[in-house]
């Protein structure tokens, strides 16, 4: 009996220890499984981050090299989004990180997690053209701010603001110059009225410059303003192929991040003038040589865009010139003297005040033609004329075409053609500015990569990607968002 008791107690201890070990092994197995799942989640998060980095590292190089813009071309040079292709590449990159033995990344490594197949889903994305090109506009502003720096940005903004105020002041002042106001000034200069008309002698070879200008205006601004020997571009656009003219693809489930740094319109105009061409700074584009003029006018051919831009500039210069003529006693005296001759040739001395005003308008128009010709030839013309910067003599007005190149000259301290375009662009709305800049950006990339149909509405700015896989019998998934630009940094969840 004594031996049996000892045997019984020895077996109970063994059984007790086995039960304890079973519980401990269960706890260890549960802890290992939990650690495996935690490690799996961490590995999946790391893999997805690497996959997203790899995905967005495939940005279009032409866009970046040419303009400093970062967009992923999800159309791969085509007109349609290929999101499946983007996700397949992302899945391969994620799988590469999750499986250390794949592709011999780490020979001899043991995979303790043993992930299953990787699946991905695009739950949201933003395209460059969404919401009026909000992503495009943000990146343009970021690129321009980084390029200029705070000091140059502020100086350029103040300079353009002052020029814009001057232009607005000229427009208002020109609006006050009416025929009645001109008659008042004439009466102040000639209190004797038209009585002296009987003493005026009309030369035999006299040519009425008013009639000459009337004929010249019918020729069109291009034939008068473009310097001799300059060939006009024959470039043309197809509106149905442009961002501003076709039905655009749109993003999904995400709102694009817009620019919040202020001065958006100024930065966009600076980006335009620094990165796109114009008549005096051509880029060699086959479709749109006069690019800034296209943004200003929105026509389908280079010739039409140049004509529209020059027409606007000519009106601005004509108003400024007329203000100078009316405010200058010497110029008013010259105009009155010739007006007397014109009135005498017409046999009606009473017309002198009206003829004097009409002559000043013709003179201002003729001077504006010389202004344009000098600007298109690379010269400078001041916003407000002085005696030294005035070009066209009144006696040369009747022979304007022959005097166009002999009397014009550049003025130090004046503005160049590109600077006048900046001023004219102040009245272009931001949405219109962005749409036409996107048109030109597309055209540039297509011309740099012949045979492609690059489309900005196929370009990703940000994406929300969900990755799913399996480890230890449990399905793991993670959903993260990533994109270009400051507005997307650290946006992981």
Task: Please supply descriptive tags for the structure shown above.
single chain, 493 residues, alpha+beta, 2 domains, four-stranded antiparallel sheet, 15 helices, 4 strands, 55% helix, rod-shaped, disordered C terminus
Tell me what the structure shows.
- Strands 1, 2, 3 and 4 form a 4-stranded antiparallel beta sheet that branches.
- It is built from 15 helices and 4 strands.
- The two termini are 70 Å apart.
- The protein is of the alpha+beta class and 493 residues long.
- 55% of the residues lie in helices and 7% in strands.
- The protein has 2 domains: 2-128 and 462-488, no CATH class; 131-448, no CATH class.
- Helix 8 runs parallel beside helix 15 (430-448).
- The protein has helices spanning 2-56, 61-67, 83-98, 130-175, 179-189, 209-217, 221-225, 264-275, 291-297, 302-327, 329-346, 352-376, 400-403, 417-425, 430-448, and strands spanning 72-73, 119-127, 459-471, 474-483.
């Amino acid at each position: 009996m004594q031996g049996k008791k000892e045997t019984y107690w020895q077996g109970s201890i063994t059984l007790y220890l086995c039960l304890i070990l079973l519980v401990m092994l269960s706890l260890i197995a549960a802890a290992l499984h939990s650690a495996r799942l935690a490690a799996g989640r961490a590995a999946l998060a790391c893999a997805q981050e690497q996959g997203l980095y790899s995905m967005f590292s495939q940005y279009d190089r032409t866009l970046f090299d040419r303009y400093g813009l970062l967009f992923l071309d999800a159309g791969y040079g085509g007109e349609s989004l290929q999101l499946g292709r983007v996700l397949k590449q992302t899945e391969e990159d994620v799988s590469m990180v999750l499986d250390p033995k794949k592709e011999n990344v780490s020979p001899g490594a043991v995979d303790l997690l043993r992930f299953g197949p990787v699946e991905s889903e695009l739950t949201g994305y933003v395209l460059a053209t969404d919401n009026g090109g909000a992503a495009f506009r943000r990146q343009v502003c970021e690129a321009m701010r980084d390029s200029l720096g705070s000091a140059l940005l502020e100086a350029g903004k103040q300079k353009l603001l002052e020029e814009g105020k001057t232009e607005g002041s000229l427009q208002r002042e020109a609006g006050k110059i009416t025929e009645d106001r001109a008659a008042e000034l004439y009466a102040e200069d000639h209190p004797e009225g038209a009585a002296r008309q009987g003493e005026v002698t009309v030369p035999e070879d006299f040519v009425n410059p008013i009639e000459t200008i009337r004929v010249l205006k019918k020729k069109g601004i291009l034939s008068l303003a473009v310097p001799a020997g300059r060939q006009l571009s024959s470039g043309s656009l197809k509106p149905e192929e442009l961002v501003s003219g076709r039905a655009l693809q749109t993003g999904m489930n995400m709102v694009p991040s817009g620019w919040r740094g202020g001065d958006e319109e100024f930065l966009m105009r600076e980006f335009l003038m620094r990165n796109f061409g114009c008549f005096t700074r051509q880029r060699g584009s086959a479709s749109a040589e006069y690019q800034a003029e296209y943004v200003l006018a929105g026509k389908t051919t280079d010739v039409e865009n140049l004509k529209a831009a020059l027409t606007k500039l000519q009106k601005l210069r004509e108003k400024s010139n007329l203000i100078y003529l009316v405010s200058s006693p010497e110029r008013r005296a010259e105009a009155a003297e010739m007006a007397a001759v014109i009135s005498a040739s017409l046999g009606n001395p009473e017309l002198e005040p009206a003829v004097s005003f009409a002559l000043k308008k013709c003179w201002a128009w003729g001077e504006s033609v010389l202004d344009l010709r000098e600007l298109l030839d690379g010269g400078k013309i001041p916003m407000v004329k002085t005696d030294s910067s005035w070009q066209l003599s009144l006696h040369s007005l009747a022979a304007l075409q022959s005097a166009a190149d002999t009397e014009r000259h550049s003025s130090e301290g004046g503005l160049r053609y590109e600077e006048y375009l900046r001023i004219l662009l102040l009245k272009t709305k931001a949405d219109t500015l962005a749409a036409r800049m996107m048109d030109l950006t597309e055209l540039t990339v297509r011309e740099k990569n012949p045979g492609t149909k690059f489309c900005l509405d196929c370009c990703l700015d940000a994406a929300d990607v969900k990755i799913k896989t399996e480890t230890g019998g449990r399905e793991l998934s993670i959903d993260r968002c990533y994109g270009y630009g400051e507005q997307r940094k650290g946006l992981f969840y």
